[in-house]
Amino acid sequence: xxxxxxxxxxxxxxLATVVGCGKTDSKTVSTDGSTSMEKVIGALGEAFExxxxxxxxxxxxxGSGSGITAVSEGRCDIGLSSRNLKKxxxxxxxTETVLAxxxxxxxxxxxxxxxxxxxxxxxxxxxxxxxxxxDIGGNDQEIVLIGRExxxxxxxxxxxxxxxxxACKYRQELTSTGDVITTVAGNPAAIGYASLASxxxxxxxxxxxxxxxxxxxxxxxxxxxxxxxxxxTKDSTKLSGAAQDFFDYITSPEANEIIxxxxxxxxxx
Length: 269
Fold this sequence. Notes:
The protein is of the alpha/beta class and about 270 residues long. The longest helix is centred in the N-terminal third of the chain and has 25 residues, at about 1-25. Strands 1, 2, 3, 4, 6, 7, 8, 9, 11 and 12 form a ten-stranded mixed beta sheet that branches. The chain is elongated and about 60 Å long. It has ten helices and twelve strands. The protein has two domains: about 30-100 and about 230-265, D-Maltodextrin-Binding Protein, domain 2, CATH 3.40.190; about 100-225, D-Maltodextrin-Binding Protein, domain 2, CATH 3.40.190.10.
């Protein structure tokens, strides 16, 4: 009888372990997409983990287009995009939920004496109509155009606002916000664009039409180079309990303070 009881106890422990592993797996929340959203989604994920014991949050910084594809193909729970979904993406059964507003900062090297450009001039620079900084108040240097890769939400937003779609004469097309900032920081003749929340002291953010890029000017709409941060989900795929809880949390007013602290403008009241 003692052996039977011992075997039953061992079997019970094994079953409990298997069930426990299953629960752990179901508590993983996976996100994929926009590199511009790294700071805000990382802060939200960290806060969610702290308040939900046993939950694991992951973020794969692949770019907006790749994140949209990932959620469409079922490789992540939530896609992250710094642009709106296109008609053909919505037709594939994808839904967008706006998380926050983000300014796109126009950045130059700190050594560059230029401090302000208007939208029209920025467009002419990126289309190759203005090619030397001396023509717009800067040094006698050829302007080096830095941008993002095709499929980037930041690029899509920048080109839409400046009217330069498919017309930019990029010297380099880089795959992340961090790469753009690093490249501009290392080249006194460079100009680029990056998420406002990611800008640091290694580069200088220009004002646009006399309006500085700040959270306040993005919120009141006076800084015009801005776009949406979007969460992407698939209609035909129900989120796991943990993923749904995460989604509900970050789109609630409860998350606004964290979103603001990450340099973005929350839209959920």
